[in-house]
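Team,

Forwarding the record for the chain on the shared tracking sheet. I've put the sequence and predicted structure together so nobody has to dig through attachments.
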Amino acid sequence: MNDIPPRAPATPENTSSEPVSTTSTNYSRWMTDMWDEIKDRRLSQLAIPGAHDSGVDLAGTWGIEELYGANQDNSFPEQLAAGARYLDLRLVDSSYRKVIGNHSPQYKFVEVFEFKHGTVSAGRRLEHLIRDVKKFVTENPREIVILDFNSYDRGKNFSNTSLERCIPYFTPIEKFLIPSSYIESTLREMRDAYPDGSIILALNHNYSKPQGDSGEPDKWQPYWIKRTQIWSTFSRKWNSSDISEQGTLKLVQQTMQSPPVYFPWVLSACAYSSTGPVHLHRAHPIRNETFKVGYQNANIVMVDFIERFDTMLSVVDRCITLNRQRFFDKTPPRPQTIYWLELSTYLTQMGTPFKTHWNSHGKDPAMTWAYTSMKFFMMKNLNLQPTQQLTEKKISTCETTISKCEL
């Protein structure tokens, strides 16, 4: 385990929230160009620009749909080129049966995995995403792209076979996938273990591995990507009851004062009006509060219209600047034992799923992240196996051992 604190504050000497110059920044390789400054950080310690509803854009929509459903200007390549390294994805299985032939009609199955915002589609499909992201990481091998399938609607007509038809789409990017066991690793550790590792795939599924001698067949096919290459979807902060500018501003202010620290998390810095998504100018209070001096705790900042100059200046550049500030921060790290003790306390207070079984996952992504972190700690330091049942006595022993463990 690395001994870096969850998220280091900016140094007093260098707390300016002003962005870097946009005239010299190559947004297609901003992580590459500052690799020495971010390589020893965990994912949760970085400031990462993200594209909200990445799969629905103005270029692929028109009319009323364009006003209400499109959150980006162009598709995946343009968003990545603008600096986005987190893509918020809403996948829908819209497969259907088509009647062909006149005299002897037959049914033809047409498979469609597309991205939608509500009912709005820009025609972007899963195969387009895989093609574009693969091309991007091949051309920019030190960039890391997070594909977070925040929503996966398996459809109505063929939902029982949706997942088994969906998973093979990821085969072309298999060699680029970083396993979920690296959630607590630094970027350098990820890259040392997986030289081609450039993509984090987060997708919730219900094909869990059969336990022990249950006799249940494993639904996961050997020719698919590995189950261990799929992460849980990322925890996010958003104001579901008020997505107006004022509601989002309030969310940002509250979140930045007390942000999550144990796992990667997403801040939804997006707002809506009666006419649809709002383009926030560079000096908008939501932008300023997200990167406010003294509260620069951002991890993944998810925004609309990431390609626009104002957004690149007020979000992408500020994320780059914040990563640089964290590199120069010389605050001594907290002892790793304190980190794990605090995480253990958090899990206990939340009524932890890991108290009953290793593979019991809570519905809350934040809980899942905390649970998974503790799981890998126990496996590494306490020699517990993934299939073991955990009794209250074992949990007590684990917590005692954590308090004594020097990492």
